[in-house]
Amino acid sequence: MGGQLTMAKVVITGKIPQVAVERLRAEHDVTSWDADVVIERAELLSRVKGADAVLSLLTEKVDGELLEAAGPQLKVVSNVAVGYNNIDVKACTERGIKVTNTPGVLTEATADIAMALILAATRRLAEGERVIRSQTPWQWGMFYMLGMGIQGRQLGIVGMGQIGIATAKRARAFGMTIAYTKRSPLDAATNAELEATHMDLDQLLATSDVVSLHCPYSPETHHLINAERLSKMRKNAYLVNTARGPVVDEAALVDALKGGVIAGAGLDVFEHEPKVHEGLLGLDNAVLIPHLGSATVETRTAMANLAATNALAFLAGQTPPNPVN
Ligand code: GLV
């Protein structure tokens, strides 16, 4: 528990919706970063000095160095994201710092993007757009730019949490069947609703027409999808990633897409964001979008508000709604 702090110093490390800044400002001394660009590391380290609470974005690494720079009074790190791989949770826990995240509020938006990428990759939407925009001559034709229909195809969901389930529901409406990996099987009601089959990863990769990644990124899931696993997928299969880039070995994916090991990919996240592997850029069978999973006005507002709620609750001596540690 945080213990009551009357006027705490709150440092927000990136630009977030003003409504959340104002809620924090009503109770605390708030320093916000109002530029549209990601804060430079040196500036970040100097700004967090003396902070009781830090609201961080996924673009900021909250590691031992930052905790040191902040000082021993730091009590809570509230991440404005559901994924918290940017935070060294162990280092926070060792220092008695509470970490929180924003689950739930971005589930639907992210599942929408996963479904959009499934459709875009299988129906060649980005490739088609490039044909039009480059004024390449084209004609309707029986055999022109055919894709894969998803009806009756199996969607394999790696990591069946809230976003995985929401993606499965959408895919079911498009006529797909659902397979999934998860430590323990879904509860009976959700399983009955989705008619989903629990599988191990190898079986899921070998039997799915589309594989969609929804697991958190951690040392255990680093390069979970590597050359060997890609080779287990079907030649006509597609890989979709809306989770975190480093879950996939991007260089191995480039080779698999070039070599026809799999048919295509839809990527919202990249191994070394904002850098994208050069090999992906020239590939027509890869749909590439810049980490837009939660990028709606409504969702970003809800994320910022939830992060503010978590910080405010902890600073008021209450249990925050979304503790990570
Ligand atoms: C976005 O990527 C998030 O983890 O919230």
Distinctive features:
single chain; 325 residues; alpha/beta; Rossmann fold; 7-stranded parallel sheet; 13 helices; 14% strand
Model description:
The protein is an alpha/beta fold and 325 residues long. It folds into 2 domains: 9-105 and 297-315, Rossmann fold (3-Layer(aba) Sandwich), CATH 3.40.50.720; 107-288, 3-Layer(aba) Sandwich (Rossmann fold). The protein has 13 helices and 12 strands. A 7-stranded parallel sheet has the order 8-7-6-9-10-11-12, with helices on both faces. A 5-stranded parallel sheet has the order 2-1-3-4-5. The longest helix has 19 residues, at 297-315. Bound molecules: glyoxylic acid.
Task: Explain the layout of strands and helices.
Layout: E1 9-12, H1 18-25, E2 29-31, H2 41-47, E3 53-56, H3 64-70, E4 76-79, H4 89-94, E5 98-100, H5 107-122, H6 125-133, E6 154-158, H7 162-173, E7 177-181, H8 188-194, E8 197-198, H9 201-207, E9 210-213, H10 227-232, E10 238-241, H11 250-258, E11 264-267, H12 278-281, E12 286-288, H13 297-315
Helix pairs in contact: 1-13, 2-3, 5-7
Bound molecules: glyoxylic acid.
